[in-house]
Amino acid sequence: MEINASDDLLPNVTLGFILYDSCYNEVRSLTGTAWILSGTKNGVPSFSCKEGNMPLAIIGDMPSKASIPIARILGLYRYPQVSYASATPLLSDKTQFPSFLRTIHNSYYEGFIIADLLKYFNWTWVGIIVSDNDLGRTGLQIVTREYEKNGGCIAFQEILPIFSSMKSVLRIVDVVKKSKATVVVLFCTTENLVSLMELASFHNITDKVWVATPGWSITSDFPRRDILTTLNGSLGLANQNGKIPGFKEFLYSIHPSISTNDPYMKTFWENVFHCIWPGNDAVNNTSPALLKEDIVWCTGEERLDSIDPNIYDVYNFKYTYRTHNAVFAVAHALHQMKNCVPGKGPFKNGSCADIYNHRPWQLLHYLKRVDFKNTAGERIFFNENGDVPVSVDILNWQLFPNGSNQYVSIGSIDTGAPKGKVFRIQLKEILWNTGNSQVPVSVCSDPCPKGYRRAALQGQKICCFDCLPCSEGEILNPNDDSECLKCPEDKWPDSRKEECLPKLIQFLSYEETLGSALACISVLFCLLTFLVFCLFIIKQKTPIVKANNRELSYLLLISLIFGFLCPLAFIGRPNRIMCMIRQVMFAVIFSLCVSTILAKTITVIMIFSATNPNSKMNTLVGFRIPVCIVPVCTVIQIILCIVWLAQAAPFAEFNMAAEIGIIVIECNEGSRVLFASVLGYMGLLASVSLFVAFMARKLPDTFNETKFITFSMLVFASVWVTFIPAYLSTKGKQTVAVEIFAILSSSAGLLVCVFFPKCYIILLHPEMNSREYITRRNARSQET
């Protein structure tokens, strides 16, 4: 009616139609085709009894199983066929079906869509049930290939026989019930699926999400509440709703009194409003005695807009929209044929076809090339296989407490849409079978925690795995969660082992408690030593200061002052200059200290020898040996240090392995041999000093100098002997702290043992620090 009333499309041309119902039956489809082609009810192959009234094209059929035999026959004559619902991929083969076109998408792409849908919801463990036909086998092949390419795994795959037996259906239901997979994909026809859904509902399988193909996603063949409960929350693909302007108003305006010649109108009205239309022959011919007293007669005032849209849907034009497009495609093809200019036509010698008398293949030529916008403004065209772009809605089955159900559109897929708008889903609109909006989980193994990698289980699919932690210093590969990557040397994994972060740089600094505490102790001992030095300067003429060579005492105090300042070079960020200075300073200063103590000890020995006329060392007193010991021993150490610095000087380095996750900036000693030589020489001096002091410990001395020196060298040796294992057992900045502690401890031992007894006498017992006291003491010792 819309085309016939148009002034732009086929003006002055009236189109009609012949309606034939194949009832989902291949045999009736073939019978109807033979009737249309031959013009007779019985059908005569290769003959047309009503050639002048031959239909120009066939719109249909709906099921693929019916369209396939029709298309095989029509293809022999190149007779145009446009289906509005047959989606099987086989019909895109133009070698077998050269005259078949369709306004519905090719179901071949449904497998890709479902694979993308499963990936979108992160369902990696699903089951698949397919019908034992082309639809099922093709869908199974595509979904399996694309799904596994996306990292998913098939938990089970079952084939539902076309003629289902109770035994096979029971077995499939048992597999579904026992499977850990929460999601089940169904590539099935409606007639195959009814028995499966009945048994699934009987076994109360309500914890599964069923993913439906367009073949049954909006079927009305599941009216029972128990089946709807089983399907509640499931997802389905459905042919996208189309818009037909004015069609809703048209559906609401139909009425039996207007469409008097429509044989279905009165029946429709009676079924919808549960009444009997006046004039119904079946009722009028019935005996009045047999008529029910409570019979309801239709008044004609019933309103179609009062009917529940689930019963009389005037909004969702899925197959209606595609039928509308199919009819308009034929009309546009005829319009192009009508407007053909002789001499510029597409056929031999530029000829045109006569719209009233043309061959089927001529209309097919125009039909394949139509490209127009329908009444809703959407572009309609066919590709080289006679298919249209894929455009499907994603539906969610929702069951309400009152028993009613609804298919809610939660998204769409349109391959003809601009890039980035092909795939659209509104998660908030979905109501799952759990009753909430949280997406169900369908996995074989739960995802591994952060910092754990997947470890495949032998004999299992890749979706079933154990979780093993990444090793120290490794993060999970962001592109492959089955392996870990080692961080670069200067980086370390974060707490979740997701990212390599720069390692913390560590050294003993003044800002931290340990560094500042050691620095304070060092300065305090330095000041204390300086005070002792000042005290000795003030009391320089007293016997206790003059005893055992006061110049050596001054030199020892000055070297101890620098020894206490030495740890300050060990605190702070190491660099090449500081690494060279601190070890050399430490070696030279302590060599000076020990050589001074050695000189003091030898001085005591020589003084005692001078008082003994029988001593063999009298001849050495005049050589001033103690004065020579200090510079000679110190110069030897200085020469060793110069050679060390010249050959392989210490330098700062980044130690990546000292502590986990930390870069320790420390001093590399350069040549370990030369460093050991420097330390070994200092140890040799200390050993000689200890030995000489120990041998002279019993010599008579007014102030017990040799005993104090012996004890100080014992403390010095003990500190550095215990330093070695402590130094080797520590890492990072604690190593430097141990060395500083050893320096401070040994220096403090020398200060306390050598000088504190003298300070005690000077400050607290000044009477002992006099010539008279020493004279009386010596006299008593001689009398004894």
Automatic annotation (TrEMBL):
One of its GO terms (molecular function) is G protein-coupled receptor activity. The chain crosses the membrane at residues 514-538, 554-572, 584-609, 621-646, 678-696, 708-728, 740-763. It is found in: Cell membrane. Residues 514-778 form the G-protein coupled receptors family 3 profile domain. Keywords: Cell membrane, G-protein coupled receptor, Glycoprotein, Membrane, Receptor, Signal, Transducer, Transmembrane, Transmembrane helix. It holds the Pfam family ANF_receptor. It is a multi-pass membrane protein. One of its GO terms (cellular component) is plasma membrane. The keyword DNA repair does not apply. This is Extracellular calcium-sensing receptor. InterPro entries: ANF_lig-bd_rcpt, GPCR_3, GPCR_3_9-Cys_dom, GPCR_3_9-Cys_sf, GPCR_3_C, GPCR_3_Ca_sens_rcpt-rel, GPCR_3_CS, GPCR_3_vmron_rcpt_2. It comes from Xenopus tropicalis (Western clawed frog).
